[in-house]
Design a protein that fits this description.
Blueprint (H helix, E strand, L loop, with lengths): L2 H7 L6 H7 L10 H13 L4 H11 L10 H6 L22 H4 L6 H13 L5 H18 L24 E5 L6 E2 L6 H11 L5 H10 L4 H4 L3 H16 L12 E3 L1 H29 L1
Parallel strand pairs: 1-3
Antiparallel strand pairs: 1-2
């Protein structure tokens, strides 16, 4: 292995959390897995304004953004009414988001994020409500940038594949030094939630630093929640679902090195965008 290849591998990490995340790939709507949400929060922390940092001292009660990044997933278990807040089912063949079609009764990711940002911004609201809103905002901005949280195949049995959750898929990478194989019970959604992140095996500090070195700027941070949803939808249609192999005898789509090489840059860019845009939302709201 050459020096440059070793340098790349040195970025990789294996944590128990990341490995465990690959075994729950069929769990619906857990965007990025815990590790991805932590990365988004840490990228955001590096771009907060001084004013936002001061406001967060009270709102976080001694914690960091990374500490609350997955709270909304934990909250969803005893509060299933919040489950629709984590995704927006834009049909794959649609041009983009349509509120009447994709957000019935205001129960979708776009509407929930809008509501929670409003609550966070309201300085007159009870502190407990603003703290809860912050936890949702940190998580939902991450969710909005996972492409399969903004798309669904309406041609699937039942009229929806639930963002790739019903598409059986397994990621198998042939790297001799760091082989990777996702669980046999995984899904396309799980591959994007966790496997494409965990299989990189990069140490978290280096991962965050690498994302911070990607080109950024105001243009990357710009946009509305609807525009970000449409961006994720296009990536789902043009990247995540494109070129999927036919299912094997067990009905599983076997994804390999070529698929990972094509999709990983998108995953990294979306994690970076989520972090930068989360910082923008917090800077404007606080």
């Amino acid at each position: 292995m050459g020096t440059s290849r070793r340098a790349h591998r040195d970025l990789r990490f294996v944590t128990a959390l990341a490995v465990a995340a690959t075994w729950v790939g069929a769990t619906p709507a857990r965007a990025w897995g815990p590790d991805g949400h932590v990365v988004v929060a840490r990228v955001a922390e590096a771009h907060l304004s001084a004013r936002a940092r001061r406001a967060l001292v009270t709102l976080l009660e001694g914690r960091r953004l990374a500490d609350i990044a997955s709270w909304a997933d934990d909250w969803r278990e005893p509060h299933p009414e919040t489950a629709p807040w984590h995704f927006v089912d834009i049909p794959l063949d649609a041009d983009g988001y349509d509120a009447a079609r994709d957000c019935p009764r205001g129960q979708c990711l776009v509407a929930a994020l809008t509501k929670e940002v409003g609550a966070l911004h309201d300085a007159r609201a009870p502190l407990s409500e603003r703290r809860r809103a912050l936890r949702f905002v940190v998580h939902l901005v991450g969710d909005l940038h996972q492409p399969l949280h903004a798309a669904t195949d309406t041609g699937a049995p039942g009229g929806s594949d639930r963002g790739g959750n019903t598409v059986k898929a397994r990621l198998t990478l042939s790297d001799a030094e760091f082989p990777y194989r996702s669980p046999p019970t995984g899904s396309l959604h799980g591959v994007w939630d966790s496997d494409l992140v965990a299989s990189e095996h990069r140490e978290q500090e280096a991962f965050v630093a690498a994302l911070s070195r990607l080109p950024g700027g105001d243009a990357l941070e710009a946009g509305t929640f609807v525009e970000w949803a449409n961006e994720s939808h296009r990536l789902a249609r043009d990247v995540a679902y494109r070129g999927l192999p036919v299912p094997d005898a067990a009905g599983v789509r076997q994804l390999g090195d070529d698929y990972a090489a094509r999709c990983r840059p998108i995953v990294e860019r979306q994690l970076q965008r989520a972090g930068l845009r989360l910082a923008r939302v917090l800077n404007e709201s606080l």
